[in-house]
Protein backbone atom coordinates (compact mmCIF):
# COMPACT_ATOMS: atom_id res chain seq x y z
CA UNK A 1 0.00 0.00 0.00
CA UNK A 2 1.30 3.45 -0.93
CA UNK A 3 2.06 5.69 2.04
CA UNK A 4 0.95 9.29 1.54
CA UNK A 5 3.45 11.68 3.04
CA UNK A 6 3.02 15.39 3.57
CA UNK A 7 5.11 15.96 0.46
CA UNK A 8 2.83 13.72 -1.61
CA UNK A 9 -0.23 15.61 -0.40
CA UNK A 10 1.39 18.95 -1.24
CA UNK A 11 2.20 17.74 -4.74
CA UNK A 12 -1.39 16.50 -5.18
CA UNK A 13 -2.78 19.86 -4.05
CA UNK A 14 -0.46 21.64 -6.47
CA UNK A 15 -1.67 19.45 -9.33
CA UNK A 16 -5.32 20.02 -8.46
CA UNK A 17 -4.68 23.73 -8.17
CA UNK A 18 -3.18 23.82 -11.66
CA UNK A 19 -6.40 22.36 -13.04
CA UNK A 20 -8.53 25.11 -11.53
CA UNK A 21 -7.57 28.40 -13.20
CA UNK A 22 -8.55 30.67 -10.30
CA UNK A 23 -10.30 30.69 -6.98
CA UNK A 24 -13.24 32.22 -8.80
CA UNK A 25 -13.61 29.16 -11.06
CA UNK A 26 -15.51 27.10 -8.48
CA UNK A 27 -17.91 30.03 -8.06
CA UNK A 28 -18.34 30.46 -11.82
CA UNK A 29 -16.98 34.00 -11.60
CA UNK A 30 -13.84 33.85 -13.70
CA UNK A 31 -13.27 37.19 -15.42
CA UNK A 32 -14.19 37.70 -19.05
CA UNK A 33 -11.94 39.21 -21.72
CA UNK A 34 -12.99 41.72 -24.38
CA UNK A 35 -10.02 42.34 -26.68
CA UNK A 36 -10.63 45.21 -29.11
CA UNK A 37 -8.16 45.81 -31.95
CA UNK A 38 -8.30 48.44 -34.69
CA UNK A 39 -6.52 48.14 -38.02
CA UNK A 40 -3.90 50.89 -38.60
CA UNK A 41 -4.30 53.49 -35.83
CA UNK A 42 -1.71 55.90 -34.50
CA UNK A 43 -1.76 56.47 -30.74
CA UNK A 44 -1.45 60.19 -31.40
CA UNK A 45 -4.94 60.29 -32.89
CA UNK A 46 -6.35 60.07 -29.34
CA UNK A 47 -6.65 62.96 -26.91
CA UNK A 48 -5.22 60.89 -24.05
CA UNK A 49 -1.95 60.75 -26.03
CA UNK A 50 -2.27 64.02 -27.94
CA UNK A 51 -4.46 66.65 -26.24
CA UNK A 52 -4.43 68.75 -29.43
CA UNK A 53 -6.17 66.03 -31.46
CA UNK A 54 -9.61 66.82 -32.88
CA UNK A 55 -10.69 63.18 -32.81
CA UNK A 56 -13.83 62.62 -30.73
CA UNK A 57 -13.85 59.18 -29.09
CA UNK A 58 -15.86 59.59 -25.87
CA UNK A 59 -16.21 55.86 -25.20
CA UNK A 60 -12.52 55.03 -25.59
CA UNK A 61 -11.62 58.20 -23.68
CA UNK A 62 -13.83 56.93 -20.85
CA UNK A 63 -12.10 53.55 -20.97
CA UNK A 64 -8.84 55.42 -20.50
CA UNK A 65 -10.30 57.36 -17.58
CA UNK A 66 -11.66 54.18 -15.98
CA UNK A 67 -8.53 52.10 -16.55
CA UNK A 68 -4.83 52.34 -17.38
CA UNK A 69 -3.17 54.05 -20.34
CA UNK A 70 0.18 52.68 -21.57
CA UNK A 71 2.65 55.27 -22.84
CA UNK A 72 5.18 52.81 -24.27
CA UNK A 73 3.34 49.99 -26.04
CA UNK A 74 4.83 48.69 -29.30
CA UNK A 75 4.20 46.07 -31.97
CA UNK A 76 7.90 45.03 -32.31
CA UNK A 77 7.99 45.16 -36.10
CA UNK A 78 7.66 43.38 -39.41
CA UNK A 79 9.43 41.36 -42.08
CA UNK A 80 6.60 42.15 -44.53
CA UNK A 81 5.12 45.21 -46.19
CA UNK A 82 1.81 43.94 -44.81
CA UNK A 83 2.78 44.89 -41.25
CA UNK A 84 -0.59 43.60 -40.01
CA UNK A 85 0.49 40.02 -40.67
CA UNK A 86 3.42 39.62 -38.25
CA UNK A 87 1.73 41.93 -35.74
CA UNK A 88 -1.35 39.73 -35.54
CA UNK A 89 0.78 36.58 -35.41
CA UNK A 90 2.52 38.05 -32.35
CA UNK A 91 -0.80 38.96 -30.72
CA UNK A 92 -2.16 35.47 -31.19
CA UNK A 93 0.93 33.46 -30.30
CA UNK A 94 2.78 35.58 -27.75
CA UNK A 95 5.97 35.09 -29.73
CA UNK A 96 8.57 37.55 -31.01
CA UNK A 97 8.84 38.78 -34.58
CA UNK A 98 11.49 36.32 -35.83
CA UNK A 99 9.85 33.36 -34.05
CA UNK A 100 6.50 33.30 -35.87
CA UNK A 101 5.41 31.64 -39.12
CA UNK A 102 6.47 33.58 -42.20
CA UNK A 103 5.08 32.57 -45.54
CA UNK A 104 7.37 35.01 -47.33
CA UNK A 105 10.55 33.66 -45.76
CA UNK A 106 9.53 30.06 -46.43
CA UNK A 107 9.28 30.88 -50.12
CA UNK A 108 12.95 31.84 -50.13
CA UNK A 109 14.06 29.31 -47.52
CA UNK A 110 12.23 25.94 -47.60
CA UNK A 111 13.99 24.89 -44.40
CA UNK A 112 12.23 27.67 -42.51
CA UNK A 113 9.25 25.40 -41.84
CA UNK A 114 11.57 22.93 -40.09
CA UNK A 115 13.30 25.59 -38.04
CA UNK A 116 13.10 25.28 -34.28
CA UNK A 117 12.36 29.00 -34.23
CA UNK A 118 8.73 28.20 -35.12
CA UNK A 119 7.00 25.23 -33.44
CA UNK A 120 5.18 23.20 -36.13
CA UNK A 121 1.98 22.97 -34.06
CA UNK A 122 2.03 26.57 -32.86
CA UNK A 123 -1.63 27.22 -33.79
CA UNK A 124 -2.67 24.78 -31.05
CA UNK A 125 -1.08 27.08 -28.47
CA UNK A 126 -2.49 30.38 -29.65
CA UNK A 127 -4.99 32.64 -27.90
CA UNK A 128 -8.31 30.92 -28.61
CA UNK A 129 -6.91 27.39 -28.30
CA UNK A 130 -5.50 28.17 -24.87
CA UNK A 131 -8.73 29.70 -23.60
CA UNK A 132 -10.89 26.98 -25.15
CA UNK A 133 -9.02 24.37 -23.12
CA UNK A 134 -9.44 26.49 -20.01
CA UNK A 135 -13.24 26.37 -20.33
CA UNK A 136 -13.81 29.78 -21.90
CA UNK A 137 -16.28 30.44 -24.69
CA UNK A 138 -14.39 32.12 -27.54
CA UNK A 139 -15.74 34.36 -30.28
CA UNK A 140 -14.01 36.41 -32.99
CA UNK A 141 -15.02 39.04 -35.49
CA UNK A 142 -12.41 40.86 -37.56
CA UNK A 143 -11.19 41.64 -41.05
CA UNK A 144 -10.16 38.90 -43.44
CA UNK A 145 -6.58 38.43 -44.58
CA UNK A 146 -3.15 39.59 -43.44
CA UNK A 147 -3.39 37.80 -40.12
CA UNK A 148 -2.80 34.34 -38.60
CA UNK A 149 -5.46 32.17 -40.27
CA UNK A 150 -4.62 28.96 -38.39
CA UNK A 151 -4.95 30.76 -35.05
CA UNK A 152 -8.13 32.58 -36.08
CA UNK A 153 -9.84 29.25 -36.80
CA UNK A 154 -9.35 28.18 -33.19
CA UNK A 155 -12.16 30.48 -32.02
CA UNK A 156 -15.41 28.60 -31.52
CA UNK A 157 -17.45 31.28 -33.28
CA UNK A 158 -15.86 33.21 -36.15
CA UNK A 159 -17.24 36.08 -38.26
CA UNK A 160 -14.69 37.53 -40.68
CA UNK A 161 -15.23 40.09 -43.42
CA UNK A 162 -13.50 43.12 -44.89
CA UNK A 163 -15.69 46.05 -43.86
CA UNK A 164 -14.18 49.37 -44.96
CA UNK A 165 -17.29 51.09 -46.25
CA UNK A 166 -19.40 53.97 -45.00
CA UNK A 167 -22.69 52.19 -44.24
CA UNK A 168 -23.81 49.94 -41.36
CA UNK A 169 -23.62 46.93 -43.66
CA UNK A 170 -20.21 47.74 -45.15
CA UNK A 171 -18.42 49.41 -42.25
CA UNK A 172 -17.49 48.97 -38.60
CA UNK A 173 -21.09 48.56 -37.45
CA UNK A 174 -21.03 45.11 -39.09
CA UNK A 175 -18.35 43.93 -36.64
CA UNK A 176 -20.18 45.52 -33.72
CA UNK A 177 -23.42 43.77 -34.68
CA UNK A 178 -21.71 40.37 -34.68
CA UNK A 179 -20.60 40.89 -31.06
CA UNK A 180 -24.04 42.10 -30.01
CA UNK A 181 -25.67 39.06 -31.62
CA UNK A 182 -23.27 36.80 -29.77
CA UNK A 183 -24.06 38.46 -26.44
CA UNK A 184 -27.80 38.26 -27.16
CA UNK A 185 -27.44 34.53 -27.77
CA UNK A 186 -25.54 34.06 -24.52
CA UNK A 187 -28.25 35.93 -22.66
CA UNK A 188 -31.00 33.92 -24.34
CA UNK A 189 -29.34 30.61 -23.40
CA UNK A 190 -28.38 31.75 -19.91
CA UNK A 191 -24.76 30.94 -20.75
CA UNK A 192 -22.63 31.58 -17.65
CA UNK A 193 -19.28 30.37 -19.00
CA UNK A 194 -16.56 33.01 -19.01
CA UNK A 195 -15.91 34.42 -22.47
CA UNK A 196 -13.07 35.71 -24.59
CA UNK A 197 -14.30 38.02 -27.35
CA UNK A 198 -11.84 39.15 -30.02
CA UNK A 199 -13.50 42.31 -31.32
CA UNK A 200 -11.57 43.44 -34.39
CA UNK A 201 -12.24 46.10 -37.00
CA UNK A 202 -11.29 46.61 -40.66
CA UNK A 203 -10.90 50.38 -40.19
CA UNK A 204 -9.33 52.95 -40.01
CA UNK A 205 -7.13 51.13 -42.56
CA UNK A 206 -7.64 52.58 -46.03
CA UNK A 207 -9.82 52.87 -47.98
CA UNK A 208 -11.18 55.17 -45.27
CA UNK A 209 -14.75 55.50 -46.51
CA UNK A 210 -16.42 57.07 -43.50
CA UNK A 211 -20.12 57.52 -42.91
CA UNK A 212 -21.54 60.70 -44.49
CA UNK A 213 -22.37 62.20 -41.08
CA UNK A 214 -18.90 61.68 -39.62
CA UNK A 215 -17.13 62.73 -42.80
CA UNK A 216 -19.06 66.01 -42.64
CA UNK A 217 -18.12 66.41 -38.97
CA UNK A 218 -14.41 66.29 -39.85
CA UNK A 219 -14.75 68.26 -43.09
CA UNK A 220 -13.57 65.34 -45.22
CA UNK A 221 -14.60 63.79 -48.51
CA UNK A 222 -13.97 60.33 -49.93
CA UNK A 223 -11.69 61.83 -52.56
CA UNK A 224 -11.16 59.52 -55.51
CA UNK A 225 -9.92 61.76 -58.34
CA UNK A 226 -6.22 61.21 -58.84
CA UNK A 227 -5.92 64.29 -61.05
CA UNK A 228 -7.17 66.80 -58.47
CA UNK A 229 -6.72 67.68 -54.82
CA UNK A 230 -9.47 67.42 -52.21
CA UNK A 231 -11.11 70.61 -51.06
CA UNK A 232 -9.84 72.24 -47.89
CA UNK A 233 -12.17 72.62 -44.92
CA UNK A 234 -11.60 74.30 -41.53
CA UNK A 235 -13.26 71.33 -39.81
CA UNK A 236 -10.45 69.02 -40.93
CA UNK A 237 -7.83 67.94 -38.40
CA UNK A 238 -4.77 70.14 -38.20
CA UNK A 239 -1.59 69.16 -40.01
CA UNK A 240 0.76 67.24 -37.66
CA UNK A 241 3.72 69.28 -36.43
CA UNK A 242 6.06 66.55 -37.71
CA UNK A 243 4.61 66.72 -41.25
CA UNK A 244 7.07 66.86 -44.14
CA UNK A 245 6.47 67.16 -47.89
CA UNK A 246 8.68 64.09 -48.41
CA UNK A 247 10.85 61.79 -46.36
CA UNK A 248 14.48 63.02 -46.38
CA UNK A 249 15.96 59.78 -47.74
CA UNK A 250 15.09 56.32 -49.06
CA UNK A 251 14.02 54.40 -45.96
CA UNK A 252 14.07 50.95 -47.68
CA UNK A 253 10.46 50.74 -48.91
CA UNK A 254 9.15 54.03 -50.28
CA UNK A 255 7.61 52.23 -53.27
CA UNK A 256 5.29 50.06 -51.15
CA UNK A 257 1.55 50.31 -51.88
CA UNK A 258 0.83 52.30 -48.71
CA UNK A 259 3.24 55.03 -49.82
CA UNK A 260 2.23 55.37 -53.46
CA UNK A 261 -1.24 53.95 -54.09
CA UNK A 262 -3.66 54.74 -51.25
CA UNK A 263 -6.88 56.01 -52.83
CA UNK A 264 -7.29 59.70 -52.08
CA UNK A 265 -3.59 60.23 -51.31
CA UNK A 266 -1.33 58.36 -53.75
CA UNK A 267 2.07 60.12 -53.73
CA UNK A 268 0.66 63.47 -52.63
CA UNK A 269 1.77 64.94 -49.31
CA UNK A 270 0.36 68.46 -49.65
CA UNK A 271 -1.61 70.05 -46.82
CA UNK A 272 -5.04 69.62 -48.45
CA UNK A 273 -4.50 65.92 -49.14
CA UNK A 274 -3.14 65.05 -45.70
CA UNK A 275 -5.72 67.03 -43.74
CA UNK A 276 -8.53 65.47 -45.76
CA UNK A 277 -7.12 61.99 -45.24
CA UNK A 278 -6.79 62.61 -41.49
CA UNK A 279 -10.44 63.68 -41.53
CA UNK A 280 -11.37 60.40 -43.17
CA UNK A 281 -9.24 58.55 -40.63
CA UNK A 282 -10.96 60.32 -37.74
CA UNK A 283 -14.40 59.64 -39.18
CA UNK A 284 -13.61 55.92 -39.28
CA UNK A 285 -12.13 56.00 -35.77
CA UNK A 286 -15.15 57.72 -34.27
CA UNK A 287 -17.35 55.11 -35.90
CA UNK A 288 -15.26 52.44 -34.16
CA UNK A 289 -15.82 54.30 -30.90
CA UNK A 290 -19.56 54.16 -31.49
CA UNK A 291 -19.47 50.39 -31.94
CA UNK A 292 -17.36 49.88 -28.84
CA UNK A 293 -19.93 51.94 -26.93
CA UNK A 294 -22.78 49.70 -28.09
CA UNK A 295 -20.98 46.58 -26.91
CA UNK A 296 -19.97 48.02 -23.54
CA UNK A 297 -23.54 49.18 -22.95
CA UNK A 298 -24.78 45.65 -23.65
CA UNK A 299 -22.23 44.11 -21.27
CA UNK A 300 -23.30 46.55 -18.58
CA UNK A 301 -26.97 45.66 -19.08
CA UNK A 302 -26.06 41.98 -18.75
CA UNK A 303 -24.20 42.62 -15.51
CA UNK A 304 -20.95 41.41 -17.08
CA UNK A 305 -18.97 44.63 -17.52
CA UNK A 306 -17.58 44.84 -13.98
CA UNK A 307 -16.19 41.32 -14.37
CA UNK A 308 -14.62 41.93 -17.78
CA UNK A 309 -11.10 43.02 -18.67
CA UNK A 310 -11.37 45.34 -21.66
CA UNK A 311 -8.28 45.84 -23.87
CA UNK A 312 -8.21 48.51 -26.56
CA UNK A 313 -5.30 48.60 -29.02
CA UNK A 314 -4.33 48.54 -32.70
CA UNK A 315 -2.07 46.22 -34.68
CA UNK A 316 0.33 49.13 -35.35
CA UNK A 317 0.30 52.88 -35.85
CA UNK A 318 0.17 54.97 -39.04
CA UNK A 319 1.98 57.94 -40.55
CA UNK A 320 -0.57 59.84 -42.71
CA UNK A 321 1.77 62.71 -43.55
CA UNK A 322 4.05 62.57 -40.55
CA UNK A 323 7.72 62.64 -41.65
CA UNK A 324 6.52 62.77 -45.26
CA UNK A 325 5.23 59.21 -44.99
CA UNK A 326 1.78 57.74 -45.48
CA UNK A 327 1.92 54.10 -44.38
CA UNK A 328 3.00 51.80 -41.58
CA UNK A 329 6.39 50.78 -42.96
CA UNK A 330 8.58 52.81 -40.62
CA UNK A 331 9.82 52.91 -37.00
CA UNK A 332 8.88 56.42 -35.94
CA UNK A 333 6.78 56.58 -32.77
CA UNK A 334 3.57 57.39 -34.66
CA UNK A 335 3.84 53.99 -36.33
CA UNK A 336 5.99 51.70 -34.17
CA UNK A 337 3.94 52.54 -31.09
CA UNK A 338 0.33 51.45 -30.59
CA UNK A 339 -2.49 52.77 -28.42
CA UNK A 340 -3.10 50.54 -25.41
CA UNK A 341 -5.76 50.98 -22.75
CA UNK A 342 -6.85 48.31 -20.27
CA UNK A 343 -9.81 48.50 -17.90
CA UNK A 344 -11.00 45.84 -15.49
CA UNK A 345 -11.14 44.46 -11.95
CA UNK A 346 -8.29 45.70 -9.76
CA UNK A 347 -7.05 48.35 -12.22
CA UNK A 348 -6.93 51.83 -10.74
CA UNK A 349 -9.06 54.30 -12.72
CA UNK A 350 -7.09 57.05 -14.38
CA UNK A 351 -3.76 55.28 -13.92
CA UNK A 352 -0.92 55.55 -16.39
CA UNK A 353 2.41 53.78 -16.92
CA UNK A 354 5.07 53.44 -19.60
CA UNK A 355 4.75 49.66 -19.49
CA UNK A 356 7.45 49.02 -22.09
CA UNK A 357 5.22 46.30 -23.50
CA UNK A 358 4.85 44.61 -26.86
CA UNK A 359 1.61 43.34 -28.37
CA UNK A 360 3.09 39.87 -27.98
CA UNK A 361 2.72 40.36 -24.18
CA UNK A 362 -1.08 40.44 -24.42
CA UNK A 363 -1.51 36.65 -24.37
CA UNK A 364 0.62 36.18 -21.25
CA UNK A 365 -1.25 39.04 -19.57
CA UNK A 366 -4.68 37.64 -20.41
CA UNK A 367 -3.62 34.30 -18.98
CA UNK A 368 -2.22 35.91 -15.84
CA UNK A 369 -5.34 37.99 -15.22
CA UNK A 370 -7.65 34.97 -15.56
CA UNK A 371 -5.48 32.33 -13.88
CA UNK A 372 -5.14 30.39 -17.13
CA UNK A 373 -1.75 28.77 -17.67
CA UNK A 374 0.21 30.42 -20.47
CA UNK A 375 1.36 28.00 -23.19
CA UNK A 376 4.96 26.79 -23.21
CA UNK A 377 5.42 28.38 -26.63
CA UNK A 378 4.73 31.85 -25.20
CA UNK A 379 7.63 34.32 -25.14
CA UNK A 380 5.72 37.37 -23.96
CA UNK A 381 5.85 38.83 -20.46
CA UNK A 382 2.72 39.43 -18.44
CA UNK A 383 2.18 43.09 -17.65
CA UNK A 384 -0.28 42.28 -14.86
CA UNK A 385 2.16 43.77 -12.29
CA UNK A 386 1.92 47.07 -14.19
CA UNK A 387 -1.87 46.90 -14.25
CA UNK A 388 -1.84 46.31 -10.50
CA UNK A 389 0.41 49.32 -9.94
CA UNK A 390 3.27 47.19 -8.58
CA UNK A 391 5.76 48.30 -11.24
CA UNK A 392 5.98 50.80 -14.08
CA UNK A 393 7.61 48.67 -16.78
CA UNK A 394 8.22 45.02 -17.58
CA UNK A 395 11.42 45.40 -19.58
CA UNK A 396 14.21 47.94 -19.92
CA UNK A 397 15.02 47.80 -23.64
CA UNK A 398 12.66 47.80 -26.64
CA UNK A 399 13.61 46.52 -30.11
CA UNK A 400 11.94 47.39 -33.41
CA UNK A 401 12.41 46.11 -36.96
CA UNK A 402 11.09 46.86 -40.41
CA UNK A 403 12.51 44.51 -43.03
CA UNK A 404 9.70 44.32 -45.56
CA UNK A 405 11.46 46.12 -48.38
CA UNK A 406 15.18 46.20 -49.13
CA UNK A 407 17.22 44.22 -46.62
CA UNK A 408 18.31 44.68 -43.91
CA UNK A 409 16.03 47.72 -43.78
CA UNK A 410 15.35 49.55 -40.52
CA UNK A 411 16.16 48.75 -36.91
CA UNK A 412 15.39 50.62 -33.72
CA UNK A 413 16.11 50.36 -30.02
CA UNK A 414 14.71 52.39 -27.15
CA UNK A 415 15.89 52.65 -23.55
CA UNK A 416 14.28 55.22 -21.28
CA UNK A 417 13.90 58.49 -23.16
CA UNK A 418 16.54 57.57 -25.73
CA UNK A 419 15.85 56.02 -29.10
CA UNK A 420 18.12 54.97 -31.95
CA UNK A 421 16.93 54.24 -35.51
CA UNK A 422 19.20 52.86 -38.25
CA UNK A 423 18.55 52.52 -41.98
CA UNK A 424 20.55 50.10 -44.16
CA UNK A 425 19.44 50.27 -47.81
CA UNK A 426 22.30 48.88 -49.92
CA UNK A 427 20.76 49.36 -53.38
CA UNK A 428 20.18 53.04 -52.68
CA UNK A 429 23.51 53.49 -50.91
CA UNK A 430 21.68 54.68 -47.77
CA UNK A 431 23.27 54.20 -44.35
CA UNK A 432 21.54 56.57 -41.93
CA UNK A 433 21.40 56.80 -38.15
CA UNK A 434 18.97 58.81 -36.05
CA UNK A 435 19.19 59.50 -32.32
CA UNK A 436 16.29 61.07 -30.43
CA UNK A 437 15.67 62.11 -26.87
CA UNK A 438 11.93 61.50 -26.73
CA UNK A 439 11.47 63.60 -23.60
CA UNK A 440 12.83 66.66 -25.40
CA UNK A 441 11.81 65.70 -28.94
CA UNK A 442 8.67 63.54 -28.69
CA UNK A 443 7.73 64.22 -32.33
CA UNK A 444 11.18 63.01 -33.53
CA UNK A 445 11.70 66.20 -35.49
CA UNK A 446 14.53 66.25 -38.02
CA UNK A 447 16.66 69.06 -39.48
CA UNK A 448 14.12 69.31 -42.32
CA UNK A 449 11.44 70.31 -39.80
CA UNK A 450 13.51 73.43 -39.04
CA UNK A 451 13.30 74.71 -42.61
CA UNK A 452 11.28 77.91 -43.10
CA UNK A 453 9.14 76.39 -45.83
CA UNK A 454 8.05 73.55 -43.53
CA UNK A 455 7.44 75.83 -40.55
CA UNK A 456 5.26 78.02 -42.77
CA UNK A 457 2.98 75.03 -43.42
CA UNK A 458 2.94 73.37 -39.97
CA UNK A 459 3.00 76.58 -37.95
CA UNK A 460 5.40 74.94 -35.51
CA UNK A 461 8.90 76.28 -34.86
CA UNK A 462 11.10 73.54 -33.37
CA UNK A 463 13.52 74.16 -30.54
CA UNK A 464 17.22 73.67 -31.23
CA UNK A 465 17.36 70.26 -29.53
CA UNK A 466 14.30 68.96 -31.41
CA UNK A 467 16.37 67.26 -34.07
CA UNK A 468 18.44 64.21 -34.92
CA UNK A 469 21.30 64.07 -32.41
CA UNK A 470 23.20 61.12 -33.92
CA UNK A 471 26.12 63.11 -35.34
CA UNK A 472 26.48 65.62 -32.52
CA UNK A 473 29.77 65.00 -30.65
CA UNK A 474 28.25 65.59 -27.23
CA UNK A 475 25.94 62.58 -27.74
CA UNK A 476 28.57 60.19 -29.09
CA UNK A 477 28.67 58.14 -25.88
CA UNK A 478 24.89 57.76 -25.79
CA UNK A 479 24.83 56.74 -29.45
CA UNK A 480 27.53 54.11 -28.82
CA UNK A 481 25.59 52.77 -25.83
CA UNK A 482 22.43 52.35 -27.89
CA UNK A 483 24.33 50.84 -30.82
CA UNK A 484 25.57 48.17 -28.41
CA UNK A 485 22.08 47.56 -27.06
CA UNK A 486 20.71 47.20 -30.58
CA UNK A 487 23.31 44.58 -31.52
CA UNK A 488 22.51 42.67 -28.35
CA UNK A 489 18.77 42.71 -29.01
CA UNK A 490 19.22 41.67 -32.63
CA UNK A 491 21.27 38.68 -31.48
CA UNK A 492 18.94 37.77 -28.62
CA UNK A 493 15.87 37.84 -30.84
CA UNK A 494 17.44 35.89 -33.74
CA UNK A 495 17.39 38.77 -36.19
CA UNK A 496 18.91 37.10 -39.31
CA UNK A 497 20.57 40.30 -40.53
CA UNK A 498 23.48 42.54 -39.62
CA UNK A 499 23.69 46.24 -40.37
CA UNK A 500 26.48 47.80 -42.38
CA UNK A 501 28.46 48.96 -39.35
CA UNK A 502 27.94 45.94 -37.09
CA UNK A 503 30.77 43.45 -36.53
TrEMBL record:
It comes from the Bacteria. Residues 1-25 form the signal peptide. It holds the Pfam family Sulfatase. InterPro entries: Alkaline_phosphatase_core_sf, GAG-degrading_sulfatase, Sulfatase_N. Residues 31-372 form the Sulfatase N-terminal domain. PANTHER family: ARYLSULFATASE K. This is Sulfatase.
